[in-house]
Amino acid sequence: MYLFLLVLVVGSCVGFQGWRTLLNNFAVEEVGLDGLGMGIVQSVREVPGFLTLLAIYVILILREHRLAALSVVIMGMGVALAGLLPTLSGLVFTTLVMSFGFHYFEAMNQSLTLQYFDHAEAPLVFGRMRSVNALANVMVGGAIYVMAKFMGYAEMLAVLGGVAVAAGLWALTRDPSRQDLPPQRKAMSLKGKYWLFYGLTFLGGARRQIFVAFAVFLLVKKFGFTIQHVTILFVVNNVLNYFISPYIGRSINRYGERWVLSLEYATLAFVFLGYAYTESGMVAALLYVADNIFFNFSMGIRTFYQKIADPRDIASGMTMGSTINHIAAVVVPVMGGLVWISNYQAVFLAAAGMSLVSLALAQMIPGQLEKRQQQG
Q1: Which of 68, 123, 273, 329 could disulfide-link to 108, CB 3.0 to 4.6 Å?
Q2: Is 252 within 8 Å of 299 (Cβ atoms)?
Q3: How far is CA 335 from CA 45, 340, 343, 350, in A?
Q4: Residue 85 CA to chain centroid, in angstroms?
Q5: Which tens digit of pLDDT belongs to each residue from 172-215?
Q6: What CATH code is carried by the domain that includes residue 266?
Q7: Quick check: is 179 in a domain?
Q8: Is residue 180 included in any domain, yes or no?
Q9: Which domain holds residue 272?
Q10: Rounded to whole angstroms, what are the CA distances from 248 to 111, 212, 236, 350?
């Protein structure tokens, strides 16, 4: 299962990171989008995330590992088609295809990891996967930096999407599953005892969408970053994440989720304040790097759920969590785009406020949970 997920993570990463790296420049230079148009595209991107709860019914027909592989194939197809449709409607369509594949794979990836690896192993596996993801991102950044000199957007997107399709097709020929695990409840469920997991997940989705939709857009629109600048920034992020991510998993085992998540939320409050008020492109770029590093701490939300959940609720919990994560994400980019027109700073101030609310909620993670981790 580790090798199976590893190949799919790399394939998914190549397609999604390539799309993400090229998106803002492609949208501005080829499609001619403004802040509102970008907000629309980013909101549409989150609709499949909101519908991830339907995956619990898909696995009535397809086993989880099959759905994971098929999802990466679909994601790659969406990326490959994006450059062929350089209009707002075309970008909306290909973004939907890409996003369905990406979000369904993420839900299956998290579910399979929490099912196949125990409480001590899961944070380490998440950390290693983030590290591998970062290394693949560096390679993607280097490839784009070179390809941009010889290819247009359509050709680059086709190559990057093709890699994801190939990884998914390989995985469709494999069966890494085991029969001795607790059977999963294949129905939607929203349980009161998981309220803290739901709350942290909801706020994380809203806050993350402000970052995804508007942080790079700020760099491109306000500070004039080129595709080469954005690519270099992504490479720097991922070199750092390659080395740091495994330590985050170990920190969860050593210090517990409450400590790790509190550090993340306190830092992000300052990062978003920086986005709102800085007049320096270099400072904004450094804030972007810090934002990327601390985003990896969010794996603590999932490991927290693993420790409090019934083992039969893992699959339904991950799909429900993904849906809750995207409830706000569906509307935040469009609302943020409207607010951006009159005052872009307010967008980032709202994210800073969300970080502080998350910090308060993180203090409710049971202390005995951390104690058990440290003893283990």
Answers
A1: 68
A2: yes
A3: 14, 8, 12, 11
A4: 24
A5: 998 887 776 666 666 566 777 888 888 898 888 888 878 877 88
A6: 1.20.1250.20
A7: no
A8: no
A9: 2-173+191-375
A10: 20, 22, 18, 27
